[in-house]
Every structure is written in C-alpha cells, then in structure tokens.
Design goal:
The protein has about 250 residues and is of the alpha/beta class. It has helices at about 25-35, 50-55, 85-90, 100-120, 150-155, 160-170, 185-190, 205-215, 235-249; strands spanning about 35-40, 70-75, 120-130, 130, 170-175, 200, 220-230.
C-alpha cells in the first residue's frame, strides 16, 4: 500500500508537521493537552470518524485548552443528486459524492458538535462535494499543498486528471449553510472532469478553508460549503478574507 509522508516538494521533512502513530497514545495526549484547535477530516465517502474516536480526541480532561473544532463533512441537502450521480460513482470515479451516506455524515456532525460543546469549544462544519486534486500543480509553486508525488500515486493514465484539475481549478467559492448542489445529469461527464463543475470541491480549497476558518470569529458554530471556481491562481490573502466576509456576514 502506498503512503504519503510528511515531505515537502524537495524530499525534505516538514519542520512544522509531526505525524504521530495512533498507537502512541502518550504522545497523542501530550499534544492534545497543549492544542487549542483541532481539524477532523476523512477522504472516504463510505465512512466517517467513529464516535469513540471523536469522544477520545475531545475528552474535556484531555483538551483543557480547546477553543475551536473544525470538521469536514459533505453536502447533504440532496440537490443535484440521483441516478446519474450514483451511476458516475460506479462507472467512473469511486470518490464521487452521491449523498448515499447522508445519514452517517449527519450523525457525525452531531457527534462533533456535542463533543466540542462538552469541552467548551466552538465548532465549524466545512462541507465538500466530490473531492478532487490536492497537490501543488505543474510547477510545485504552492508548497502548502501535497507534493507532486501525489499525482504519481493517483494517476490512471499518462497525464492524471488530478493534476489538470489542480492547474485549472484553483479558485474557491464559499456558501453559508448546506446549499451547494451536486452535478445532476452531467455527473457522468464531470466525474473525472478537470474544469469547474457543480458538485466538486478541490482538496486544496477545502483544506485551506478549514485552516483559515480558525482565524474567522464569525465561522464559529456555523456550517459552510466549499465549491470550485476556474482559475490558474489560488485566492490571495485579501480574497480569502472577502470570501469569508461575503459568506458568513
């Protein structure tokens, strides 16, 4: 099984990232005791983080400094879903979000919210559709994202559509609440599409939105969705500020 490691684009270890084995509970609890924020996310459309893990990570006795918990969930409103979306998941891309696991994700959101409240922390739910891309594009110009080895691990053709997506769709849109639509009848054509499409969310955009929401006071105790915008450039600092202002104010 291939595994991503904590490396930058030049093969060097990242000084600000520590990967801790789940079995090293002593180190995990040392870090939990010092942190004031937590990000929870899973890339799998079929499963969510187990309630026992959430309760362990957000045990009030283990996280005395916790102030904000940001969890990635999915668009659950059901718009733009149906037969064609489910068919595209079976035929073209197993990671297409077709709302089939809505109940599990809804309960997961409730579990996160209740656990955060028990330890006196605010929560933020960041919604995604079909996750695409995730690395730094053709020139490795965005070191905050995964290294280009990600494309080698995920490609199924000479040129991976994941790379093309990261080159073409670096823009982001934010929408308050659970309102973003799926791809509808176009799903079969967009499942591995590398352009801007309804129902898609870039991994880079979702990850950055989760991190940046920690600095946004009005992102506390709300949910918002992350969609895509065709662009060769990622949002600037000022543009991110405007996105949150327009979405959550």
């Amino acid at each position: 099984m291939k595994q991503l490691s904590a490396m930058d684009g030049f093969g060097e270890s990242l000084s600000n990232l520590e990967l801790v084995p789940a079995s090293d509970t002593d180190r995990v609890e040392e870090l939990l005791a010092e942190t004031d924020a937590m990000l929870i996310a899973t890339d799998d459309v079929d499963s969510v983080v187990d309630p026992s893990i959430i309760n362990y990570l957000l045990d009030p006795e283990k996280v005395p400094k916790m102030k904000r918990v940001v969890a990635m969930s999915r668009n659950l409103n059901g718009a733009g879903m149906g037969f064609f979306v489910s068919a595209s998941r079976r035929a073209a891309n197993a990671q297409v979000w077709d709302n089939d696991n809505k109940a599990a994700f809804g309960q997961y959101e409730t579990n996160v919210q209740e656990a955060a409240e028990k330890c006196g922390a605010d929560w933020t739910i960041v919604r995604a559709g079909t996750l695409k891309g995730g690395a730094s594009g053709e020139n490795s110009e965005y070191p905050q994202y995964l290294a280009n080895s990600y494309y080698e691990m995920t490609k199924s053709d000479i040129i991976t559509w994941q790379l093309l997506f990261d080159c073409n769709v670096r823009g982001v849109k934010l929408s308050k609440g659970d309102v973003l639509s799926g791809p509808g009848v176009k799903a079969v054509f967009t499942a591995v599409g590398s352009e801007e499409h309804e129902g898609d969310s870039g991994r880079c955009g979702v990850a950055e939105a989760m991190v940046r929401s920690l600095e946004v006071d009005v992102a506390a105790n709300v949910d918002f969705g992350v969609g895509t915008v065709a662009s060769r450039e990622i949002p600037s600092e000022e543009e991110w500020g405007a996105l949150f202002q327009e979405c959550l104010s």
